[in-house]
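Entry 14. Structure prediction run on the chain below.
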Amino acid sequence: MRLTDVRIPRQHMLCKHQHVTRDGKFVQHPGGGGKLHYVSMLFTRGNLIRQAGGAVARAVTVAARYSCVRRQGFSEPGAVGFDSPEKAVIEYSMQQYRVTRAVATAYALKFVGRWMLDRFATMEQGDAAGEILMPSPGELSELAASSAGLKGVTTVMASESIEDCRQCCGGNGYLLSSGVAQLWSDYVWWVTAEGDTVVMQMQLAKFLVKSASKPPDELPAQVQY
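Output returned:
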């Protein structure tokens, strides 16, 4: 959106953590600044982690239901008639493996997403004005590294799992009417949103290498092991 010759009152310019004086001077409020903006990025990563499980759950719901109603292959040996009963594809062990693996992946991503959001919820338990409780520098570094690594891993896992669910639906998986084809194309860009997977994992690796050189009592509880 572009605005030309539009005057915005100063009190409407998001002045909670900073403001601009009448003479044009920028004033930073105590407690605001770079760390607060950094935390907002972490919240975005946390939401991407949380939503990965939901995306896989939707895809595997389609794949599981399709596998139960799609029939292929005669149930009885030697049957050749057009009216001979056929197996549901879910009865094949490989189809069962692929579908149940996606179900397990959905639950795993849901649990790790909930764990991450619980940590953010602790930071949001500020005063009535909605102030953020900033963690210690060490805890903030660990939270940034954990959210980076998890964002990279969970989005890749979700993208690959959704694609496998689409393939489980055979030729019908290519149809937009199946639901799962559109779901994959809508989700795959999350792998690079808010940081490419490789960059995210490198950020986590850098934190772990630095942590390995420090005494355990100087590290956050999550990495003391």
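Helices lie at 34-69, 93-123, 137-168, 180-187, 197-212.
Filed with the rest of this week's runs.
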